[in-house]
Amino acid sequence: MNDPIISLHIVTWNSMRFLPDLLSSIKEQTFKEINILIIDNASSDGVEDFVKEHYPEIVFIRNARNLGFSAAHNQGIRYAIEHWPKEALQDRFILLTNPDIIFTPTYLEELIASARVHPEVASFGGKLLRAFGENIGDEVFKQTVRSDRLDSVGLNPHRNYTVTDRGAGELDQGQYDEEAFVFGISGALVLFRASSLEDVRYQDEILDHHFFAYKEDVDLAWRLQQAGWDAFYVPRAVAYHYRGMYGPEKSGLWQRLRNHRSKSSLRNFFSTRNHWLMLIKNIHSRHFFLALPWIAFYEGGRLIYVLFFEHSGLRTIKETCSLFPVMLKKRAHVFKKAKRSAKDLRHWFV
Fold this sequence. Notes:
It is built from 13 helices and twelve strands. It is globular, with a radius of gyration of 20 Å. With 350 residues, it is an alpha/beta fold. The chain has two domains: 6-241, Alpha-Beta Complex (Spore Coat Polysaccharide Biosynthesis Protein SpsA, Chain A), CATH 3.90.550; 253-349, no CATH class. A hairpin with a 5-residue loop joins strand 8 (155-157) and strand 9 (163-165). Helix 6 (216-226) packs parallel to helix 8 and helix 8 packs across helix 12.
């Protein structure tokens, strides 16, 4: 492995319908100091043969089974960090991207320019817009529509301690054209300073592997904030995302629950369980009691919905309870590493 500025990681699981467009857009980047690493979770769609034939320079790691988004990305992050000198980690970066992303040519150049100006920042992200695929005959996504509808311009916490994608579902009319510090960046596409990930590492984990998939990006953003690291939004960096699980950011409890019902039971299981695990790990006791009315209303509604309207409801509750002791151990590590007080973080959750 060379010594690039960016180690770019893609976790795949039967993602061939998206991967060619992603890799093509990476190849067109104006910033060239990149190594690409694909971690495949036991796909059966020929991704390994495709990569070896068309992109032999890419490092390809194949897992024998689906380890999930978090554990697979942890493999890649450890691989990159172990190949860099420890003293270089402050100026090295790891970019996590979903397979269903399309970069504009200057995306990485814009993020790196910002990263060099803000050494105190752990994570950087740009303006992520939604892409749609038009069905033409039997070929799915033959034609890509790059829309002006926002997918994410950062993570936005609320006083009930839910976290949504900032701007999600809005038309891009320039309302997010200013650089800004944000709570965190969506895990669909985020650039991390390598030293920040090493700083919040727990044993072999950077992303929490117990989460498997969903909400692991919010959990990591929260831990980085507590450890004294910032996140920064760079609007000049533009990319597009075929998002499979989304809703408008500005929606009430019952609208969110209806949107929740339209998604697969497995996604809903991980999303709900991981949100509860994230609260156990990260919320300050003082914050919990201050926000208790809002948390109780929202989570009470979610609990009733899970119990009565989801087939996986009992499993969600059972696994949350079984993982409670593990989360308490991780919570102790989070607060041992914390450099910011409850008061320092309170302004995000109002």
